[in-house]
Each structure stands twice: as structure tokens, then as C-alpha cells.
Amino acid sequence: MWTEKQKEAIDKRNSNILVSASAGSGKTAVLVERVINRVIDDNVDINKLLIVTFTNASASELKERLLKRIYEALDKDKSNAFLKRQIQNINIANIETIHSFCLKLIRSNFDVLEIDPNIKIVDESYSNVLKIKAINNVLEKLYIKANKDDLEKEKLYKFLELFSSKDDKLTEYILKIYSYINSFSYPFDTLKSNIEKYNQNLDNIDLVKTDFGKEIYDDVISSLNLLLLEGNNKLKLIEAKEDFVKIYEILDSEVTYIKSILDNADSWDKLYTMLNNFSFSRMSAYKGEDIDLKEDVLYFRNKILKKEIEDLKKQVYETSSNILNDNKIAYEYVSYMYDIIFEFDKKYSKLKQDAALIDFNDIEHLALKLLVKKDENGNYELTEIAKQKRSEFEEIYTDEYQDTSMVQETILQAISNSNNRFMVGDVKQSIYKFRQAMPEIFNEKYKNYEVNNADSKGSVKILLNKNFRSRKQVIDSINKIFEKIMSDKVGNCNYSESEKLEFGATLYEEDKSLDYRAKINVIDLKDEEESNKESNKESNKENNDGDAYLSELKNFEIEARMVLEEIKNIVGKFNVYDVKEKKFHKARYKDIVILLRSIKDKGMILENVLKENGIPVFCDVSSSIFESDEIKLVLSLLKVIDNPIQDVYMVSVMYSIIGNFTLDEMLVIKSLANNTCMYNSLYISRDILKDKLKNTNIEVDNKILLQKIEYFITFLEEYINIKKIYSVSKIILKLYKETNIYNEYLLEKDTAKMKKANLNYLVDIAINYENNFDGSLSTYLKYVESLKDKVDSGSATAKIISENEDVVRIMTIHKSKGLEFPVVMLCDTTRKYNIRDTSDTIVMESSLGIGVNVVKEDLNITYPSVIKQAIKNKIVKDSKSEELRMLYVALTRAKEKLIIFGTLNDYEKFIQNQKISIENGKVNYKIVEKNSDYFSNILLAISTLNDSEKNEYFDVNILNKSKVIESIKLKDKNERDTKNLSLKMNIENFLNGKDVDNVKIKELSSIIENNLDFKYKYLDDVNLQSRVSVSELKRKENNIDVEEYSFEIPECINENKIQSGANYGTTMHKMLMYIDYNKISTKEDLQKYIENLISDNVVKKESITSDMIRKIYKFLNSKIGKELKECKKINKEKEFILVDSKISNSQIQGIIDLYYINQNGNITLVDFKTDNLEEEEMFIQKYNIQLDIYKRALEKLTGISVEKTYIYSFKLGKEIEIKYEWL
Predict the structure, then answer these.
(1) Could you tell me where the DSSP H helices lie in 266-420?
(2) Whole-structure pTM over 0.85, yes or no?
(3) Closest listed residue to residue 1153, CA positions, set 1207, 1215, 1200
(4) Which residues contact 531 (CB under 8 A, 6 or more apart)?
(5) Where are the alpha helices (DSSP H) in 646-751?
(6) d(Cα 759, Cα 748) in Å, to the nearest integer?
(7) CB-CB contact of 619 with 810 (8 Å)
(8) pLDDT tens across 844-890, in order?
(9) Secondary structure string (H, E, C) spanning 1143-1161
(10) Distance between CA 1116 and CA 1124 in Å, rounded?
């Protein structure tokens, strides 16, 4: 059952063992078997083993496997008390993630750490809030200190000069550095050593001897080697051609000089001198006839060689001494960093301690603190707890060892002895760098451990390369790709004979009619008739990233259609072999997975194309609720309440259902108050319109605009004031209640449930925030921003699907790790690699440290230090190595068929431009490194094969874009024609009394009737336009047109806010909304009611005047007020949406203040007004349209006639009846 290598891994004892287990090699089965043998054969108690898994799911699965095997052993020896004890212990066994192990260690030693035994783990979002608070505290103290001390001021100035004088940016950099140092075992030792790199005394040491100098030097030398190789290849092409003599001489001298650099530049300064002495001679015009060869050679010389040499000169930009001087300059700026980060850590730790919290990083670092301490000389030594743990565990297992971090490795080393570690992993599948995974840890042991043999006594490595997952054809194609492109330099693994996959799935049977070779579908975007236009297209793409991305999405739609065709060709046609059942079955949808590097945008395109064509599909993507319209609107409103001088958010709110301003109205506001932010413009335009109203009869639409502005200002002022006294959750709930937000989105039937959940989720976030932190609205908004940035924050609704559901799955490569599928389709392979950003002020890398700029104040220039340049190079190389490993993970998911899709602008040109240089059977790593997508490297590897090999392992299809599109159109038409023809024949046979195949007569009758009698269900709504407010409708009815302008959001200038006015109208409306008319008869009743409103924080005491109370009391004693006391049913603040083509071709929305059923059984409608109009006629003229719409809406909503319609004017102190004269 077990291979020889697997048996070695299972049986080897008394050694540290590294098992390098390739994809599909059964590493988990080997680990389980070894543990079972230790328990059953060696009588080792399960609690004496520590088994560290990568995920909790893996731990659970491992426990289940072990339990099953122990039960099987117990069946053979039912009286075995030891085995029975293992069954009892399995649930409390040390089979867990490293974090679970660390947490147990912390909780059992909280007294040693002097922390609260009820400590809680804070989520990342809340920890970010605490971090920001700590940073603000530290910066404030620094500024105060700098103001009192000139020396401190100078230090701080230099620090800010290097990083940023803006607090937000400075906060970002501090958090970046803090996160970086916490990926190390001893954070502040790391920070100190990184800073001291800038203060090294290297007077007598060549810069190449430093880690950063060597990084750049090695990279330059490798680039020169490739140029030498390519240059010699070009020289060979032209050396025997007479008409190339002059070109040959010049190119030969340049290539010879490169050889001279490689032979002699054995130090940094020599390399600097020789590179800077490199010059290019002028070439005379070529007069020969071999134009193609000339263009090829000159393209290399003028476009590649020259550019490369110039780029290399920038790498080695100065002599050693000058670079060391640069580092000293940078040291003056960067040395201050240690104190700031240290003070921040102290403050952040204090905030966590006060709240009895620890964050995710603390888990590992606190555990390490229990295991390792510093002695009096500053050296690290094991604690008594670590020594105890060493004696506690007989063996320590680590699964997925290639993804171990530095801190985790230090912890595991502390609790293990010299010969009891068993580590399983595959460096080729290390794809979690963003989680601080360090494949270098695996590789160091791989390099130092000897290959296991009978005489091995020390630490050993065992290679498991036999793949039991995939067909031979799949394995062969994977090997042919990676043996050419994966190396120690790119991929961190030399994919040689010892690392290649070996075919082990011998149980597979073959269907001789099927082609199991890997299929490569190349979609060539270059249409033959447009060949001369392509270069222009390329230029446009470079100049416009946005257009390029849109073009990319359109091209991917073609790729998606090709995926659809492949699925149609596989499902029900391709025979999938079931190894367990030992038989073939026709491929089902669930046998297929589509993998992408990222499923954002592209995944949705694929999903839509498949769904539209009847393919059941599940796309494992969850969009953040923060991208939903309703949450965007609420957050925009909260941001305006927090700081109204933010035009982007202010304009968004004004244009929404909250403000109901039109673009034209906002333009009028800005034209009345130019060169200031929108918030100030509201006040200025209000005052201007008020003055116009006093002096002249301004247009009706401007009166309406003034009304809108006044209401909106009042609305904003209320919330800006209450943000200081209300909790955030209460503010949000109040907004839901008093605006139309909640009901607006619940009208959308298809998404109402989701949108309601989203809105409620925002409240839940606020409550969670308030339970943990006593902060402001501003801090809450920062808390939400940190949630938005979290990948796994729970801010998106997870999609759940059964394992057995028959659907095609679309997922990321990351999520596919550990899974396998009969058919794997890899798409979007020309997507550019996800390279970490290296353009920031600060860059960080685990082996080289922290890279900053050099600031020369006297020259007023800033440029990257050599350390920063080295780090940038390393980041790019590491990112490309991980992307190559990602490709390996993707391809090794396939069991029986592998299909790869890629889109190229010009396939023929791409192949011609491949500069293939083979060294020891591999493509020169610099060529692989230069490529920036999967497809380029796949085709690069295939292009090294001769035609026989290529045809043996790959089925390469070149598909021209125009032909693909025509083929798609033709297939779509044929499918429609076939369906229509079948239906037509059945209908004709049915009508002629003939037999009808496979269609019931009843169904055909229904089809005929539906087609003949069809009437569009919503014929009345054909001309229905978008929703409008009542105010907009009033303007249109009065035939008042506003000149159209193109609205442009202005930049906000920094100036003081205009002071807020009274919130009279809003306060009056709120008091009337909550009033109980049956319970208030006297002034004392009214006074008590208002006191209750104040105590419940419905209204503020300072916003209520005696004039308001007097006016409300007068209303209660008016004709309407007396009728209200006799009514059984009173409705207040009734929102409505009206569709009535007699009024408008648009949906109309509004809010009715008050209506009630009068003694006649009809409706009386009342609208409250606090306007300062002096005459009844002015009210009627202004509001008759609005009230007529309210009447129609009520009659439509209730089915009851509206008998009376009143405006109640608090200014005039009486009701005004509206007569319907509008229609």
C-alpha cells in the first residue's frame, strides 16, 4: 500500500524529519499513519504528541481520521484499555493550529504574564481603532514636546520631512512599520537592527559584502549575463554576412565590453566605474536587403541593450563611499523612528491592557514571551515553561510547514528537542506570503538536511514526489512547464528530477477515444484585417489605464464564451473515471472547476455568461456590503454629519432621496455662492434667495429651492448638534426613522431582504463598536473604514453550497488549495501579477529591512536609498516567485483534464519576441522573471519544446478573435433556430392533427394562446420615467425651466464654517409627530408631554421656545385640533410613492404630515407649515399642487375619499383650506 519513501516517513524515528511532499503525494495520509503507528505500535499517548495544522478544519479532519483508525484497531483488540483511553483523549488532544496552542499556553500562565485571566481577543477592526487612538496620543505628545525643545523640534522635523507632515499618512506608515516588525520573533530588536543598517561603518568593506549591496550586485550581474548571451546570439546571426560588417563591429565591441565587466567588476566600485564608462557608438544606415534580420538585430541593440544598460546604471548609481554617506544622511531622519514606534507600542499595549484585550499578533508574541527570555547579558534563553513543554511532548508535527512564519518557527524550536520534529510541506505550494509565511524556513532545512538513508543519524529529508491524484498526461504537462521555468531564483525551488512529479495513479483506466493532453486555448486578438492598427491600440492602452481595463473586460467576455463552449464539449461527453467505483461516468457540471487568480469582476462575467446559457454555476465571491447603494448613502450622510465640509459626500447626500435636490438645483446653489464648499454655499444661497423673496417676486422654482435648502439646513443642523450627545447607533436608527432611507430600499422586492439586512448590519457594527469603545462618530467612521479593508472581516455575506451540488464552480487559486477536480480550467492567465507596491515612501522586506528615501535639504531633492532600492528589487522577485508557485498550485488541482485559456494581442509576435536562453535544461531565470503573467511563462516553457514534444504533451489551439466571435454568433443562431424549428414543427403537427413528439398537447395550446393573446402586463408604465419629488413636479407643472448646465463638483477650500441657524421647523414637526392628541387638554398636559420628549432625547431643551409651545397649544384648540381629539385613527408622517400617468410620467414620492378619518367616514388631510408667509393666498399659491398630489396619493393608497385638505400655518395661527384648482 505504501511506497518506499512513504514508509520511510512513517517509520523513521529519533530524528528531525522534513518531508517534502509534492501535490497529490498523500502527505496527510502519511502523517496520520505515522501518528497511528506511534500510538498503536509504540504505545505513545496521544496527549504526548503536538500536531500543528494550518487551519481548524484540518485539525478536525485529522482528529476524525485518527479516531476512525483507533476504532479499527480496537475492533481487533476489544479489551485494549490503552486504545480506549486514546478514544477518550482524542477530543482534548493537542491537534490544533499554532494559535490555539498559543492561546492555551497563555491562559494557563496568565499570572506569569500579569494579564487578566478573562482576556478577550479583539477583532482587527477594533484593534485598528485602538491603534489610531494610541498614535494620536503619541503624536500629540511629540508636538507638545517639540514646541518646548528646539532639539526635539529638529528631530521631529527631520522625521516628518522623511515620511509625511500629514497625520493620516504618518499614521499609515507607523502602522505599516509596526505590522512589519511584529512578523519577527523579537520586534524591537529587529527594528533597531534595521535602523542601524543606515549607520554601518563600512570604510574598509566592499558594499557587495552587505546584504543590500549583494542583492543589487547579483541582480546586475545576472542581467549582464543574459545580455551577453542574447548579444552573442545576435552576433552569430550576422557574423558571416558582408552587409552587416559595420553593425557587427559595433555590436561586437559592446558585447565584448559586457564580457569585460563580468570578468573584472568583482567589487561595487569597479562595477560602478565600468557601467558608467559604457557608451554606445553611432551606427551608420544599413543598406543591405535582409530587412527583417536588420530590424531584429537593431531592435535588440537599440531597444533592449541600451535600455537595460541605462537601467543598470540607475541601480549602481554611486560609489560605495557616496552611498554610505547617503545612508548616514538617511540615518539622521530614520533614527527617530524607533522612539516613536516604541512609544506607540507602549500606549497601544496600555489601551489593550485596560480593556482586557489582546490582538492577533499578541497571541504568538505572548506565547513566545513565556518560552524565551533575555538573560543578564541580553542573550535569549529558554524559560522553565519551555523546558517543561520540551519534556511534555515526545514528538511535534507541523503540517503545511512551507507556510510557517518566523515567530511560529521560534515557538516550535523552543518547545522541541534536537530530534523530535516531523515537518511536512511543499515549498512549491507556499502561497501565503501575505500571512507572513516564509518559504525560506523550509528551504533552509531542505538545504541542510541530508537525504534519508539507512545510515542517517542526524536531521533528514524525505522526498515524496509520487502523485496519486492525476493522470499521467496531466503530470507530464505540468512537469514540462515547470522544469523549464521554476528555479531557486524564481519560485524558490529547483524543479529538477528530484522535485518533478512522478506518476502514481496507476488505477486510472484510459478511454482511448479521449485526448487527455493539456489543452492550451490561445485567443489571438489580432484580426488579420486590423494588423496595421494594433500598434496604435497598444499605445492607447499604455496612455489610458482605465480604457485598457475596460478593453480587458470586453476581451475576457470572449474568453468566457470559449469556456462555455469547452463546458458544453465536456459535460455528458467526456468520460470521467471513478477510481473508487472502478468505472467511467459521463462528466457532470460538478466535475469542473474554473480557477482565477482573482474573481473580482472576471468571476462575475464568467458566472453571468454561464448562467445566461443555462449552465448551473456557483461563483465563490462575496461582494462587500460596503459597496451596496444603501450603505454608501448612510455612510456618506454620517460623514457629512461628522464633517459637513466634504463636497463629495455632501453632493451625494443632496442628490439622494434624503436631499432630493436635482443637479440643476445644486448648480444654482453653487452659482449663487461660488469658490466655497457646498455646505457654505447652502447658507449663502439661502440668504440670497431670502433677500430676493423680500424685494421681488422670485420665480416659483426658486421659492421651492429655498424651501428645500431651509429644510436641508435644518435637518443637517439637528444631526450635527446631536452627534455630540447621541450614540452612533442611536444616530443611525434616528436617521432610518426620520428619513426615507429604510422604506426606499425595502420597496425593491428582489433585494429588499438583503438591503434590510445590510442596513441592520450597519447598526450592529455601531453597537459592537459602542460595547468596546467610548468614541466619537469620527472614530466610528475610521472603524468602518478598517472593516472595509479587511478581507475576512465578515463584512460580506458568505455563499454556501453543498459539496455534491451539480454545478460548475468558479473559485480563486488560493481557495482551491487542498482540493482536486476531474477537470480544471484556468482562466484570465494574462492578468498581470499581483506585485506588492514598491512606490511608497517606506518599503519593508524580511531579509533586508526597512527602505527609506535620502533627503538632501540643501539640494531640495529626494531619491531612494540603496537599501530601499535593494528591497524594491527583492519584493518584485519574491512576488514573482510566489506567483509561479500559485500557478503550480492551480495546475496540480487537475485529475484528468487541464484546460488553460489565455488572450494575447498578437500570438505570432509574442512567439517571435521570446528570447529563449536555456541553461542546464532551464530557461534563463531573468527571462522568466521579466514576464508578468502566467500565460507568458506557460507559452515560454512550451516554446522551448520541439514540435514532437509539443504535440505529445499539449494540444495548442490558436483562436483568432474575429473567427471566435463569428463562431459564437453562428452557434447561438443555430441553437435558437433548432429550438424554434422544433417548436414550429410540433405546433404545425398539432394544428394538422398529427402526432406530436415529446410535447404535451396542453402545453402547445398554452404556447399558441400566449403568443396570440399576449398583452404587456405593464402597458400603462411604458412611458414611466425615473422617480421625482413633489417639489420637482410643481416646478414642471408651472412650466418653469432651468437652464441646463454640466454640473461639476468643486474643490472645497479650507475656511471657517458659517454658524448654524435655528432648527425651528424640524423641532415643531417632531413635537407634533409624537404628540397624543387624546391625552393633552391643558397647558400642564402639554408641558409634561414636552418634558418627556426632552428626557427621551427626542428634542433638545435649548431648541424649544415658549413661542413654539404657545403655537402648538393654539393648534390643539383649533378646529382641526378639536376634531383630532374625537378621532379613533390618526396617521402621521405617512410616506408614499405614487404612480399616476394623469399627473406625471414619473414616480412621485412624498411624506404627508397628518391625516385622519373624520366623522363622515372620509379623510381630512393636514399639512403643517412654519413658513413666514403673511397671507393665506400665498400659502395656497405655493402649496396647492403639493396638497393635490397628497390627496390623490391618499385616495389611491386607502381607497377612501379625501373630503377636506388643510394647511395649518403656525405663523398665521389658523387652518387654510385648499380648493383643488390644479387639474
Answers:
(1) 268-276, 291-298, 306-315, 320-334, 336-354, 360-371, 384-392, 406-415
(2) no
(3) 1207
(4) none
(5) 647-655, 663-672, 678-695, 700-722, 728-738, 741-746
(6) 14
(7) yes
(8) 999 999 999 988 877 778 889 999 999 999 999 999 999 999 999 99
(9) CCCEEEEEEEEEEEECCCC
(10) 8
